[in-house]
Design brief:
335 residues, alpha/beta, TIM Barrel, eight-stranded parallel sheet, 14 strands, 36% helix, 16% strand
């Protein structure tokens, strides 16, 4: 069975699934100044989307998904495009609000699976880091068996677990606690890897050392590091890798997202060289500028636009079914 925010469902009921989305989140603490060093207080509007895409972390408003009504409307658009389920992966450090997810799922007619985890060290409250290892593991276990803290919602998996380029003590402790709890519960763990490092196989080995089956590991946003040898090494551990489409933004002068064209080319090559690679897809919406109402691609971008491109490129329907339906369902199914 798969645990959604409205209760368990059979894997066959899930349908086309995005494995890493955010419906309600607060990442304003990640805000950065404009390239010239000055601060920008602008809201997300069509007339300033160009400035925003040039400096994606400059606007506090962009980094705050705070409206249940907007989430419902955006999910309804995605449902019309053929998306049937999303994993809501907002973890501690990103302002999660799981108590509002059941109402959103019910109104939108979308399966919503809530993840519970802890993000990168610099986002975490001291109260989280000061827990003992046993207490941290107990929190993860209760989220899976009873409810996520502050809500009556049961988590369907653990994540999004964050790692910095140099994995900190707090991050490693959380990874080990989550892996141990997930192994006992028979559920998955999703991971966000820092693009500045190549730690995927290392993290997979760490999780496995705590008893977690590699088939229960999901490395989200793998397109942040499109290094074929590195991604092959991750795939060869047995873990699932996720490609997130739709964001093509700059983060000041030194970093930018890949384009969807680059992501598609890399995905096609991976399918050719690793035909058994376990792959899922998402839009990884976590900011207002990614929403359709603000000129972004929205939660339905993969099924609306990316899948037709993959079909025209010759990806068999059976392979697309695996990426969109089978792999997510197998990853989330707790038996």
């Amino acid at each position: 069975m798969i645990q959604t925010v409205l209760g368990p469902v059979e894997p066959a009921q899930l349908g086309r699934t995005s494995t890493n989305e955010h419906l309600l989140a607060d990442s304003r603490h990640l805000r950065r100044p404009l390239r010239g060093g000055e601060w920008w207080d602008g809201d997300v509007r069509p007339d300033n989307l160009g400035d925003l895409r040039w400096n994606w972390l400059a606007s506090a408003d962009n980094l705050h998904l705070d409206s249940a009504d907007v989430a419902v409307d955006e999910l309804e658009r995605a449902h019309a495009d053929g998306l049937r389920a999303v994993v809501e992966a907002t973890s501690v450090g990103m302002g999660p609000d799981p108590s509002r997810l059941p109402d959103i799922a019910r109104r939108a007619g979308m399966h919503v699976v809530a993840a519970f985890g802890s993000y990168i060290d610099k986002t975490l409250p001291e109260s989280w880091k000061q827990q003992s290892d046993d207490d941290m593991r107990a929190v993860f276990s209760r989220a899976l068996s009873e409810s996520i803290p502050g809500s009556t919602v049961r988590a369907g998996l653990l994540g999004l677990m964050g790692t910095s380029a140099d994995i900190t003590l707090a991050e490693e402790r959380a990874l080990r606690a989550a892996a141990s709890a997930a192994a006992e519960a028979g559920c998955a763990v999703s991971i966000r890897l820092d693009a500045a490092a190549r730690r995927g196989p290392e993290v997979a080995a760490l999780l496995a050392s705590e008893g977690l089956d590699p088939h229960r590991i999901l490395f989200c946003n793998i397109d942040k590091v499109m290094d074929a040898a590195y991604v092959h090494d991750i795939v060869d551990t047995g873990a699932v890798v996720e490609f997130a489409f739709g964001s093509e933004n700059y983060f000041a002068d030194g970093a930018r997202d890949a384009t969807d064209g680059e992501r598609i080319a890399f995905l096609l090559a991976l399918c050719e060289t690793r035909p058994e690679a376990r792959i899922t897809l998402s839009s990884s919406v976590w900011t207002k500028g990614q929403l359709a109402r603000h000129g972004g691609m929205g939660y339905g971008h993969v099924v609306r636009r990316v899948v037709p491109v993959l079909e025209r490129a010759g990806v068999p329907s059976s392979r697309l079914e695996r990426m969109l339906v089978t792999e997510p369902a197998e990853l989330l199914d707790r038996g």
